[in-house]
Amino acid sequence: MADLKTIREIAKKYTPDQIEGCIIMQLEAGENVCLKDRHHEGIINELAKAAFVKTLMLEKDLSLADALRELAVKMRRMQSHAKKH
What we know:
Blueprint: H1 4-13, H2 16-29, H3 40-59, H4 64-84
Helix pairs in contact: 1-3, 2-3, 3-4
């Protein structure tokens, strides 16, 4: 399950490019400046979700709350789709 507090904090603090840079740093070096204190896979997941939220905020001019709702809808759709297969 997504840690919405963490996603919210990252989306507020960093641009999509900065979050993408943190994902790349995590993949290449095993650490990054955006998020620590998690296992590797959890960090990648949280950063990817934060990047999605931040991109929605900028591209669709959504508030943070609305972008988080969009993320929740997308996650529910993906989970529902996965259960059908």
